Amino acid sequence: MKLKRIAYSSGEPAGIGPDIALYLALAQASQPSSAELVVLGNKQLLQDRAHQLGLDVSLVEYDASRPPQHWPLGTLLVAEHALAGTVTAGELNPANSRYVLNLLDHACRGCLQGEFDAVMTGPVHKGVINDAGIAFSGHTEFFAEQSQTPQVVMMLATPGLRVALVTTHLPLSQVPSAINQPLVESVTEIVASALKQQFACPQPRILMCGLNPHAGEQGHLGGEEIEHIEPAIRDLKQRGIDVSGPWPADTVFQPHYLENADAVIAMYHDQGLPVLKYRGFGNAVNITLGLPFVRTSVDHGTALDKAGTGAIDIGSASYALETALTMVTE
Ligand SMILES: NC(=O)C1=CN([C@@H]2O[C@H](COP(=O)(O)OP(=O)(O)OC[C@H]3O[C@@H](n4cnc5c(N)ncnc54)[C@H](O)[C@@H]3O)[C@@H](O)[C@H]2O)C=CC1
Ligand SMILES: NCC(=O)COP(=O)(O)O
């Protein structure tokens, strides 16, 4: 079988994204025999970080014209991108924001054009990218826009729980007006189809959260359930999708409900993700559903306080890599 070529965009240079690449190169479990990992990043930065961490990693320049191959433990293949400013672990420098975006551009273009079979993203710092004058709300939205995909879905998964979101990086004040019946339906359809095709759930069972406390309490605590979410559920059921709700979010995340479900759909970021991270932080993956390519990501952020210290956990990165590989080989 042909080896898969997976891109790892190493993200914010002052964060732990580069450290993750170095530790992955040294971890047997993270060197799958069926894939070649290409780190999109900067060789000097990786060399400096390896030195800071006391790691012995051999950096090899990536050549896109050569077929993927299996590299020995301790070797890291690097697709070179130039930095614009100095990098100090833990200290953000807006001068490097364009570099971060260049990594994502390469990843997206490479996946669309067949250079890469999938991308796993390292963490970026959304704030510093915006500080540099570049509007950016997240990888999810960036990859959707770059690949001209009108609707994608953010789903995080850890063993025993998958949580997908109707809205992603939106100020809380804008969430209620963003929720409407067509959006709830299209998100649910993407989740149901991905569960079937990419996650081996032949008959996906989906639990849908309400937006308001107690799912609106029959309209006494908010009207979005009656106006948008319930009609969407009725339509989806008529189309054969096994979805129930709207459930109060403080009820549905109980084992009693979750044990009979393949995914929960939450209405907004902080309704679903804290539960997911409480259950599986460090052993969870973020997946963008609906893109024309496979994109997975770590479940955490830039961890600026840990960059260059060696006190990091690469569990989520390993899981994200493994998930990407499973998704491209299925
Ligand atoms: N996939 C991505 O690109 C994501 C990026 N972010 C960005 O990260 C930035 C910082 O976000 P925070 O809320 O501080 O979350 P964070 O995940 O960076 O850090 C929260 C805490 O967890 C620790 N931590 C995180 N990952 C760790 C790891 N692998 N090993 C050991 N400790 C780890 C950190 O040291 C910190 O104490 C924000 O700008 C945010 O936008 C946040 C989530 C995902
Ligand atoms: N909390 C997860 C998160 O915000 C990651 O977003 P994205 O950069 O993957 O879109």
Give a short overview.
The protein is of the alpha/beta class and 330 residues long. It is built from twelve helices and twelve strands.
Bound molecules: 1,4-dihydronicotinamide adenine dinucleotide, ligand LD2JLWAY
Chain-averaged pLDDT: 96
Please describe the biggest sheet, giving its number of strands, its sense, and whether it closes into a barrel.
12 strands, mixed
Fraction in beta strands: 15-25%
Level-2 CATH architecture of the largest domain: 3-Layer(aba) Sandwich
Strand order of the largest sheet: 3-4-2-1-5-12-11-6-7-10-8-9
CATH class of the largest domain: Alpha Beta
| SSE order, one letter for each helix or strand | EHEHEEHEHHEEHHEHEHHEHEEH
Helix count equals 12
Q: What Rg, in angstroms, do the CA atoms define?
A: 20 Å
Low-confidence stretches: none
User: What characteristic shape results from the CA principal axes?
Assistant: globular
| Number of β-strand runs | 12
Number of structurally distinct domains: 2
What structural category characterises the helix and strand content? alpha/beta
Describe what you observe in this structure.
The protein is α/β, with parallel strands linked by helices. The protein contains twelve helices and twelve strands. It folds into two domains: 1-149 and 291-330, Isopropylmalate Dehydrogenase, CATH 3.40.718; 154-280, 3-Layer(aba) Sandwich (Isopropylmalate Dehydrogenase). Helices cover 38% and strands 19% of the residues. Helix 1 (17-26) crosses helix 2 (43-53). The longest helix is centred in the middle third of the chain and has 18 residues, at 181-198. The protein is globular. The structure holds 1,4-dihydronicotinamide adenine dinucleotide and the ligand NCC(=O)COP(=O)(O)O. 1,4-dihydronicotinamide adenine dinucleotide (NAI) binds at residues 16, 123-127, 139, 297-298, 300-303, 305-306, 312-313. Homodimer. Its EC number is 1.1.1.262.
